[in-house]
Amino acid sequence: MLTLAPLAGMAQIAKIAINGAGTEGAPGGIWLIALASLACLFLGLALIAAGELAAHLADNRLTHGLRRALVERLSRVPLGWFSSRASGEVKQAMQDDIGTLHELTAHYYTTLGRAGGAILFSVVYMLVVDWRMAIASLLPFPFYYLIFGAAKKAISEERMTQFVTGQARINNAVIEFVNGIPVVKAFGVSGKAHGAYREAVDAFTKAFLSFTQPLVAPLANANAIIAPVTVLGVVLAFGTLFVSLGWIAPVDVLPFALIAPGISGPLMLLGFISHGVANGTAAAQRVQALLETERLEQPAPGTLQVPAGTEVRFENVGYAYDGQNAVLSSIDLTLAPGTVTAVVGASGAGKSTLARLLLRFFDPTEGRILLGGADLRLIETSQLYRSIGFVLQDVRLVNASVYDNIALGRPCASRQQVEAAAQAASIHERILALPRGYDSVVGEDAKLSGGEEQRICIARAVLLDPPVLVLDEATSAADAENEAAIQKALSRMARGRTLLVVAHRLDTIMHADRIVVMEDGAVREQGTHAQLLSAGGAYARLWQSGGYADAVQEAVAP
Ligand code: ADP
Q1: Number of domains within the chain
Q2: CA 408 – ligand 1 centroid, Å
């Protein structure tokens, strides 16, 4: 409002100059108005700067708080929640959505204040100067809303939906297209795959056109009506009329010519920022949803239990991912300390789910799992992961040196301990052959194969030295040398530990102390290799059907 005061000042100066030229005290009055106008201008600018600063500081604090709250929350969700879907959601909320909220916090209110203030000042000032001229000057604006409203109605609900689904389709097609490039190239069907993408693009273009076409003409008209030059034309036309009617003096038209055209800018700005509110609200809702994700139940203080020993016992355990269709049911299983238990079964039998339950990726929907007599749910999380280590199929190395990757769970381990762990995992020699040895950075100068990465994960688990280890063997066929190295590392690991192996290979199964055969989420039979073979049940059939690994492979790739 203050930055507009100079315009009113100018009109006033013009009035004094024309009406009062030559009269006593006129120059002094002009100077006073000029000085007051300048003061208002600078004070206004200072306030704008202060407002922007305050808004940005607030935004900074909010963003910081939200990011921290999200990280804090994510550290409490069940590990099983993290999937590729979840990482997309997390990225969207932590990067994109918080960025969108910046628009809202840092810019929305200051813009609303400035634009709203400018319009309010202009309207009130004009009404005070001359209400008839004020009404005449404001005439174009209601027309803008009439035309704009009619145009908005012209976009049917259906067209809007087409537009949005078109956008989603294009996003999916892009992902499919990029993911599929290697396969597509290798099999020489580029035309076809490009076709799906091109189709989505064409459909989107069509939807976009039908969405925007009815809008183009009315929008152009609406914008033309409130363009500053149109408003000035209206002011001058009515001014001329009113002067000729003798209602006002010519100089009285000046304030309106100066002020009225300036309303268009802030008015359009208000329209733009209302989009920002819609986007910001959607973003805030997604952030809120992430802040309200399920939390892994923490034991109440006082109910904490400390595992006594390393015996693992599943008691009548059942689990359903969706809460209804049980993937596991009535599992009773005891893993004796210092033994290796191999879980076998066709793909989809529930082997990985069983392993993840022991790692407390999620809690069983029925029954309980005990470690050393303590319910997993009542063991403090840090204690739990000190007791149970895991090496899973999807190897996760962080973007840091090989050394740091091995020492991830025990950052204060000595160099010797880290190297000993690497030796136990049969990866020491390979690391030494890297350009910067242990200091090579994963993904930069440490380019490792899948099997080598898994051995680094094994070294990480060895270093942590957990009394219980859960291992989901890689299904993908590693090369023979790698496979032998992994097997060697594992048998070293097995000594003196309680080991649960989701097995995909014969060697592991044969030497296991116990083999658990799973079928449709239940334990079908268990015993040693020899016992199960002589029993002539499911395991014997699996074994005789030409090798377990092949059977699993067949099930995986029907
Ligand atoms: P296995 O390891 O024996 O191949 P899983 O434990 O991976 O079997 O899967 C058992 C069943 O649970 C399968 O029917 C699978 O589709 C389902 N399942 C696995 N993971 C999920 C998940 N994250 N959400 C929903 N269902 C799942």
Answers
A1: 2
A2: 28
Question: Is there a single domain that holds both residue 188 and residue 284?
Answer: yes
Q: Tell me which amino acid residue 391 is.
A: V
| Domain assignment present for 47 | yes
Give the domain CATH number at 382: 3.40.50.300
Q: Are residues 330 and 265 in the same domain?
A: no
From 84, 85, 321, 357, mutation site for ligand 1 pocket: most ligand atoms within 8 A of C-beta: 321
Q: Is the CB of 347 under 6 A from ligand 1?
A: yes
Q: Are residue 98 and residue 237 in the same domain, yes or no?
A: yes
Query: How far are the Cα atoms of 5, 65, 140, 305, 356 from residue 127, in angstroms, in the given order?
Result: 15, 46, 16, 76, 72
By residue range, what is the domain housing residue 335?
301-398+454-527
> Whose Cα sits closest to atom 19 in ligand 1?
353
Ligand 1 neighbour 394 (Cβ under 6 A): no
- Summarised one tens digit per residue, pLDDT across range 224-279 is 888 999 999 999 999 999 999 999 998 889 999 999 999 999 988 888 888 778 78
Output the pTM of the full model.
0.68
Residues 6+ apart with CB under 8 A from 39: none
Strands 340-345 and 514-519: parallel
d(CA 54, CA 38): 24
Question: Taking a C-beta distance cutoff of 8 angstroms, is the pair 108, 280 a contact?
Answer: yes
